[in-house]
Design goal:
Elements: H1 9-22, H2 26-56, H3 63-77
Length: 78
């Protein structure tokens, strides 16, 4: 089904340049980008739903576990 989208001129220029660099059609790149975005959004929404269900049922992570997580995450960034 055809869909008309309005994108900024900057985004259109980047899309055109990428299409040329990769020897692919713009529509192919747009479809791939949308598929990836939709899949990512679905995963995020599912993770949120699972987290809310766990919280509703009283499942929480121990403070020590969270402290360790943030220490590890902080060290990974630095």
């Amino acid at each position: 089904m055809p869909v008309n989208l309005q994108v900024s001129s900057e985004l259109k220029a980047e899309l055109s340049a990428l299409a040329k660099q990769t020897h692919r059609d713009e529509i192919e790149l747009v479809n791939e980008a949308l598929e990836n975005y939709i899949a990512w959004e679905k995963r995020m929404l599912n993770n949120i739903r699972e987290g809310l269900a766990q919280a509703d049922s009283g499942e929480f992570v121990a403070d020590e576990e969270m402290d360790m997580f943030f220490e590890t995450a902080f060290l990974a960034v630095w």
